[in-house]
Design brief:
Elements (H helix, E strand, L loop, with lengths): L14 H14 L17 E7 L2 E6 L9 H12 L7 E6 L12 H9 L5
Parallel strand pairs: 2-3
Antiparallel strand pairs: 1-2
InterPro entries: Fe-S_Maturation_MIP18, FSCA_dom_sf, MIP18-like
Pfam families: FeS_assembly_P (PF01883)
Organism: Nocardia huaxiensis
């Protein structure tokens, strides 16, 4: 028996697949956190994004597990990705570990928050 843990093989993406993921990420910038008014990408709420069989699968969190606005964010994501024709369907996996914190906000997100009067 081996002491090493088997790691999953890294997936090699084609240039077209990489471009598609970049387009999906850009489209997710249209999804805005209703409380803060900043997009979910720059807030650091999107933890993972992949496409399987034309279904966007997103690992995503919220600023608080008690946030009552998951339906609003999910509807915005559906508009951005499915109704725009980028994918056929969408699945959001709401995750709470690791917990979201201000350290996850991008520099663009910080600039947007500062413009709204927040100190970050």
């Amino acid at each position: 028996m081996s002491d090493t843990t088997e790691q999953p093989a890294e997936v090699q993406l084609t240039p077209e697949e990489i471009e598609h993921l970049e387009n999906l990420e850009e489209a997710m910038r249209d999804v805005v956190d209703p409380e803060l008014g900043i997009n979910v990408v720059d807030l650091g709420l999107v933890y993972g994004l992949k496409v399987e069989d034309q279904i966007a699968k997103i690992d995503m969190t919220l600023t608080s597990p008690a946030c009552p606005l998951t339906d609003v964010i999910e509807d915005q994501a559906r508009n951005a990705l499915v109704r725009s024709g980028l994918v056929e369907d969408l699945q959001i996996n709401w995750v709470w570990m690791p917990p979201w914190g201000p350290d996850k906000i991008t520099e663009d997100g910080r600039d947007q928050l500062r413009a709204l009067g927040f100190t970050v």
